Amino acid sequence: MSFKAQLFLSSVSLLAFATSARAQQTAPAPAPTYSDAPDAAVESGQTAASEKAPQGAAGASDGAATATAQDIVVTGSRIARNGNSSPSPVTVVGVSDVLTTTPGVSLGEALNTIPAFSGSRQSTSNPTNTGAQSGGNGAANALNLRNLGSTRTLILEDGRRVPPTLFNGLVDVDIIPQMLIDRVDLVTGGVSAVYGSDAVSGVVNYVVNRKLQGFRAQVSSGISRYGDDARNDIGVAYGTKIGDRLHIEASYEYRTEDPITSRASRPYLNQVGVTGAGTTANPYVLQTNLRQSGFPAGGLITSGALAGKEFSANGVLTPFVAGIATGTSGVQIGGDGGYFDGSLISGSVAHQAFGRADYEITDSIHAFVQASGDWKTNTSDGDSAQLSNVTINRTNAFLPATVQSQIPVTQQTFTYSELLNQIPDAHENIVSRQYVFTGGFDGKIDRFKWAIDYTHGSTTLINTLSNDVNRQKLSAALDAVSSNGQIVCNASLTNTAYANCVPFNAFGPSAASAAAIAYVTDPVTYRTLTTTDDATAQINGDLFQGWAGPITAALSGEWRRIAFKSTSTSAPSNVADCTGLRYNCVTSTSSAVAATALNDFQFGASPGGLSQTVWEVAGEVEVPVLKDLWIFKALNVNGAARYTNYSTSGHYVTWKIGGDLEITDSLRFRATRSRDIRAPTLYELYAPSNQTIVRSLDVLTGLSPSTPQVTLANPTLTAEIGNTFTAGVVWKPTHSLSFAVDGYHINISNAITQVTGSTTNLQNACYASGGTSPYCALQVRPNAITDTSAANVVSKWLVQNINLSEIDTYGIDVEANFSSHLFGRLFQARVLAAYQPHIKYIQPGVATVDQGDVAFGPLGLYAAPSVRINANVRYQFIDNMTVEIGERYRNPMKLGGDPTQVFVDNHIGSFYTTSLNLAWDVKSRGNAFQFFVNVQNLFDAQPPLGAYSGNGTRAGLRDGFAIGDDVRGRYFTAGAKVQF
């Protein structure tokens, strides 16, 4: 057994024996390390202090201070209480804890190390140019509980809904002021009755430190062992009290990450892909060193007398060297074919600023205003452009005379294919500018607390795609002729629209001039503006004294309006004007044959704007049912109900009921049952169509043409309904040790599912039905599906959201915590584990697909291992030095979850990494300083290879590893923190 494996097993064994609750329970003594954690006790798996008392200069470790008598706000409920009972499972994450384990990254990325998050998106999540599917920014930090989709995870800040950042309704959590966040509460269960739509899989609530006194700062810098992915992070925060009633605070953070623009920068990512058809006769096979056999980088003649010859060098025609055939037509192992090599990690430059002022108007009325701003730019490189069997005239002026002489005069043209690597990959530059303004009042009237507030959010997203091929210009530029001793575009001789046309030399890997490349490519810009206005009011308190304690209730109301508008420099309606063009331009706009799209990537526009309004009213009650009986200590029941009315998709009722049974001070049981909703977003309902060019396998004809794929809106969508049941136990056998185990079952009916015609199982369902299946409407062909000839190859794929599926999943979350002293030194440990064996997508007309324990799936479904473990041990070796060791593990998975697909080996191995953090703390005259060195992936583990079967026609495209695995390799970070 390797040293790494021994260390991993030893750590897990130790944690299983000791198990830990550092961020969830009162520790026996303060830790001498720098921290910004709440100065209030937090009980395992359930509650956290609503406000933080002023912290001393030296700080205290998470959960290491003495409990206060103030009210406790339990995320998942609007009822404030000074108790320890919550029927909903809540995991409390101390910010300093998670950022100590993973320094130098944003808080959103650090949270993704927690097992409950599976399928979250970040900079390493295979950047793409498909803005429609990614909400305009494929590198945004979007959190995803249970891998049920980020749109089903509600993001809150201090219990208030955070306005969406992306046009598909997602929140880029980098808007949250990381320097002023005390903790993050994760409610891993449905709470739509409390917080409204989207809280189907749970809630992530960022709790702001509203009592900061003094100054704090941090700086860090990191780099991988390969010398790339450099990260830098600088943050400052300051808070002070002015007079007796005013408190102000502000923070600023600057964060950068260099992109890794080549997947080939990691040698083990050797053009990985799945080949085959997924049938018994031609099963799927995971392979490496794949090549596009029909698309060499220098160009391949595909018809006529010279078919099978390529331009291996500029103007030099040689026989094409084929690789080893695979089960996928057009994809071979080795040989002269080209391959894709897009970004591995997107780049980022981000500025985040936050300011808040709190004022005590009277002893019972408090007012606040706050503002957040996030200015972020993400960059990534995507797909290479292609020439797919374009027509070239035998007298093309760039074609060497020696080559022309080998073509019979009777052959006027030939077809030609090429992976256009000489044109830079499509480069995506995404600028996001988000502002959030919030203000409100709260106070007390007798035994009741009330609050009203208003939030305005505005996000401008500017997505500029450079090097996007203009197919009309390319058609003109490829038809090069000689005129008056000059090589010109043929169209320029008869059509003044092409007076500036620069002829394009496609005969060689780098034959085209820079001027020609500039002429045939456009920057395509898609600009969106999303605005949110949200007003809420609530009141809660004790109604009266019941037989077992006070009966407490909360009443809340909310109104919000979301508006969206967009502009585009190239919409799907923009098709090529073929006037004067001899070749490679299709003018037909019939339903069966698509006209040539002007650009490879096109985005629809809604300059007039769209909007929806929502109003809701909700009530919640907590009733102590029994107390101090001989068989148990207390039984509390909590219930909530909400009425929601959407102007676009109707009205709904959601509810939740839960109970908490306290057997003794150290043992209690809890359970909840809820009905939740996710209403369709404005973008899903009414957004204009978007178009990209894809190269997917057409199962009917066996071909893989370059085909437009158009994403459509669906105004008939209605809300999906979630039904959730959770049950768990919390056990604290000692003051230092605690356990929490919670099971859940989530069923989502009427689920909004994005279906695309190119998906293999949907194609098969169409063909098996003889053309009657609704999935047949997702593909456009010249003829009926009974025609399997090449003449009936697909001309367009359609993508649309529909209320079609049922999603069903269940699992268990385990949390174990320990905090004590070992040999007189502070010792803390924590284990978080998640078991989620199944995520079933039940869809009519096709086999049920189970994405549980599966690494890859269609339309951005990310890896969903059934076992995920995060374990950390922290020990204070000497007075000023603390060592922390972290372990992350996921179990082996399948490559695909479709039961109709046949694999030679449907398997991707397990993966685990070790992190090490060394921190030195220095105290000087009441000030606290910390210097740290961190190594992620200490043993430089390489993720096991895998790929999505749906990418089999594109060698090396966005494949090679399961999302969530560490592809950077060993990573070093050093930094410092100061507080005074």
Largest sheet descriptor = 22 strands, antiparallel, barrel
Radius of gyration: 30 Å
Assembly state: single chain
Tell me the number of strands.
47
Description:
The chain has 980 residues and is mainly beta. 7% of the residues lie in helices and 46% in strands. It contains 10 helices and 47 strands. The strands form 8 sheets. It has a 22-stranded antiparallel beta barrel. A hairpin with a 4-residue loop joins strand 28 and strand 29. The two termini are 48 Å apart. The model is unreliable at 1-72 (pLDDT under 50).
Concise structural overview:
This protein is mostly beta strands and 980 residues long. 7% of the residues lie in helices and 46% in strands.
Give structural attributes.
980 residues, mainly beta, 22-stranded antiparallel β-barrel, five-stranded mixed sheet, 47 strands, 7% helix, disordered N terminus
